[in-house]
Amino acid sequence: MMKVPDHIPKPDYAITGHSKSEAETNGIEYKSPRDIQGMRAACRVGREVLDIAGSAVRPGITTDEIDKIVFEECVKRNAYPSPLNYYFFPKSVCTYFFVFYFDLISIVPSMKWSATAFPILASCKAVIS
After folding, report:
1. Which of 15, 70, 79, 102 is the most exposed place for a label (fewest CB within 10 A)?
2. 94-97, long-range: CB within 8 Å, 24+ apart, which pairs?
3. What residue ranges of the chain have pLDDT lower than 50?
4. In the prediction, which pLDDT does 74 show?
5. CB atoms within 10 A of CB 42
């Protein structure tokens, strides 16, 4: 697992793998205008990073290479890549290569598969403060 620089704020699960704040949330959580502004900024960062990762997809690229791009782009923006260590997920992005046989099969994201004309699905979020 890649190490996020110390100057970047981290969610509680960054160390433990479990989100204490998520477990303690009861019911509807009301957001202040400041919270909403922060969510919009985080969504912008996530969209930028996902666009950069998407533009890097080419035949032969591996899920590890895409993960490295996402990690580096999040760090450049002083953002924590939210999937990283969330319930012990070892990557900065969920990346799937789809293989078409008789059924649609999703290959395990932690495996080192490469893209060879397969459609790509990626999910990217960022935590900023």
Report:
1. 102
2. 94/122, 94/123, 94/124, 95/63, 95/66, 95/67, 95/120, 95/121, 95/122, 96/120, 96/121, 96/122, 97/63
3. 99-119
4. 93
5. 19
